[in-house]
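We were asked to recover a plausible sequence for a given structure. The inputs and outputs are reproduced exactly as logged, with field labels preserved.

PROBLEM: sequence recovery
POSITIONS: 156
GIVEN STRUCTURE:
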């Protein structure tokens, strides 16, 4: 008498193969890690630390906001575009012409820690000549937990 054990190799496998899913997740993780630094708004500037923690101005991250960055002495950026010192006034003026609401006519200035005070004052004077009363100076905001976030104080 012979007994059939049924242990042959013709049965279906009921386990889920997770290896392809893990491969896809790792590829997505790498893609997100590479793309994330490019999503940063504007030019990276080493901002001075602020002690009295102003409120964060939500308008600074808008696409239509006017942000002048001075990462080093003699380097000027309008948004992400490098401009010469002589072109800065006319380009800011053309951007201001597009803004109809008087409350939205704010120019933000991001200055690096090592930038001379004279460069920042010259940019402020040029912006004031264009009739802008609100100028936001951007600094790092210290949180109680040690994290930092960009904050702008607006002067009238």
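RECOVERED SEQUENCE:
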């Amino acid at each position: 008498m012979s007994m059939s054990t049924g242990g042959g190799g013709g049965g279906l496998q009921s386990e889920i193969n997770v290896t392809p899913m893990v491969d896809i997740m790792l590829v997505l993780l790498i893609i997100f890690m590479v793309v994330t630094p490019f999503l940063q708004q504007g030019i990276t500037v080493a901002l001075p630390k602020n002690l009295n923690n102003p409120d964060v101005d939500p308008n600074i991250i808008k696409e239509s906001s006017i942000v002048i960055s001075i990462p080093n002495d003699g380097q000027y950026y309008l948004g992400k575009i490098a401009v010469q010192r002589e072109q800065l006034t006319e380009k800011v003026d053309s951007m201001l012409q597009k803004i109809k609401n008087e409350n939205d006519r704010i120019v933000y200035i991001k200055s690096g820690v090592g930038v001379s005070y004279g460069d920042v004052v010259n940019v402020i004077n040029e912006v004031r000549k264009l009739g802008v009363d609100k100028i936001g100076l951007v600094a790092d905001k210290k949180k109680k937990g040690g994290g930092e976030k960009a904050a702008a104080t607006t002067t009238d």
